[in-house]
């Protein structure tokens, strides 16, 4: 039986619209692959607004211990990518961690 996710780790950051495409490519190349290798699942979202583009990454974990092992310590600490200061309007100061209470997909 596959392991079920019980924890979601949520990161959000924003960039200028004129460099959003470049940051998206960077996230896909550098930020997502480590999560794909370790987490049970990962999603990347983008919301384009007039003055800024928001990116949200949600990774899914079986438990807090697995997430803590990935982050090598405190799971709420932000681990910025090398080029984040170049792209982001401001560096996010925290990660949100949510317990998954309902997990249903494919509902009509």
Automatic annotation (TrEMBL):
InterPro entries: Dimeric_a/b-barrel. This is Antibiotic biosynthesis monooxygenase.
């Amino acid at each position: 039986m596959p392991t079920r996710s019980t924890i979601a780790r949520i990161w959000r950051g924003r960039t200028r619209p004129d460099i959003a495409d470049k940051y998206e490519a960077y996230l896909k190349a550098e930020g997502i692959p480590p999560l794909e290798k370790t987490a049970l699942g990962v999603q990347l979202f983008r919301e384009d607004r007039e003055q800024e583009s928001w990116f949200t990454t949600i990774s899914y974990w079986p438990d807090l211990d697995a997430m803590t092992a990935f982050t090598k310590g405190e799971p709420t600490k932000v681990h910025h990518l090398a080029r984040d200061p170049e792209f982001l309007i401001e560096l996010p100061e925290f990660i949100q961690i949510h317990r998954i209470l309902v997990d249903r997909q494919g509902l009509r």
